[in-house]
Design brief:
This protein has 223 residues and is of the alpha+beta class. It is 22% helix and 48% strand.
Length: 223
C-alpha cells in the first residue's frame, strides 16, 4: 500500500513539474514575441487594436466524460497590418484513436482506438492573411511532444509530431471590435509523427496522415 501511495505522489509531483515547465515556456515565448514586435513594427492607426488573446470552442468537448480530450488552447496574436496577423498558440490535449480517421461510422467505432491514449502538448505559430473584408486564410505549424500511455494509464514512451493546418474562415467583429468569433474550415496534416509504440503504429498506418474539412470556431478578445 505504501509503495502505491509513493508512486501516486511521484506521478502527481511529476505532472506538476511538467505543467510548471509548460507555463514557463509559454511565458518566455510570449515575452520574446512582444519584444520582437515592439522593436520591428511602427504604430499605425491608434484606434486599431493590435493585440488579442483567444482560444477555440472545441474546449466544450471536455464535457464528454467518456473519452475526455482534456483540450486547452491559448492564442496570443499581433496584427502586423490590417491584413496580416501572426499568433503564438499553446495547445494541450489527449486523443484515443488515429486523428486521420474521417468522419463517419469508422470514427465512432471503438475497434479503431489505440490500446491506450496519446497526451499531446505543443506550441505553434500561425500567419493569417485577410483576403476580402472578413474573409481570411491562415496557416499553422505546431510542434507537439507526444506521450503514449497504455490502457492502465502507464507511460510507454515519448514521440514528436509536426502538425500543420491550412484554414479558411470569416472574422466577425463583436461589441465594437472588443471581441471576435471566427468560424472556419480546415485541412490538416502531420507529415512527421515519430516513435509510436508498435501497437499504436499499427492503428495509425490504417489511415491517412491528413484530415479534410475540419470545422473550427475560434474566439478572442482584442486589447
Amino acid at each position: 500500500m505504501n509503495s502505491v501511495k509513493q508512486e501516486c505522489n511521484f506521478v502527481e509531483t511529476n505532472n506538476y513539474n511538467i505543467m510548471t515547465r509548460r507555463i514557463a515556456l509559454l511565458i518566455i515565448i510570449i515575452s520574446t514575441s512582444i519584444s520582437s514586435v515592439f522593436s520591428q513594427e511602427k504604430k499605425e492607426n491608434s484606434k486599431d487594436k493590435k493585440y488579442f488573446i483567444g482560444s477555440t470552442f472545441f474546449m466544450l468537448a471536455n464535457f464528454d466524460t467518456n473519452e475526455t480530450p482534456n483540450y486547452y488552447q491559448l492564442n496570443f496574436g499581433y496584427r502586423l497590418t490590417t491584413k496580416d496577423v501572426i499568433s503564438i498558440e499553446a495547445i494541450t490535449w489527449d486523443y484515443y484513436e488515429p486523428i486521420g480517421i474521417p468522419y463517419g461510422s469508422e470514427k465512432a467505432d471503438e475497434k479503431n482506438n489505440f490500446p491506450g491514449k496519446v497526451e499531446s502538448d505543443g506550441v505553434g505559430l500561425s500567419y493569417k492573411r485577410f483576403l476580402w473584408k472578413g474573409v481570411y486564410t491562415q496557416i499553422h505549424a505546431t510542434a507537439f511532444r507526444q506521450t503514449y500511455r497504455d490502457e492502465n494509464d502507464k507511460k510507454i514512451q515519448n514521440g514528436f509530431q509536426l502538425f500543420n493546418t491550412l484554414r479558411f474562415g470569416y472574422h466577425f467583429k463583436l461589441f465594437k471590435n472588443r471581441m471576435f468569433i471566427e468560424p472556419s474550415i480546415a485541412f490538416t496534416s502531420w507529415p512527421i509523427n515519430t516513435n509510436l509504440p508498435e501497437a499504436f503504429q499499427i492503428e495509425e498506418d490504417k489511415w491517412n496522415r491528413f484530415f479534410l474539412f475540419e470545422p473550427g470556431l475560434h474566439f478572442g478578445i482584442n486589447f
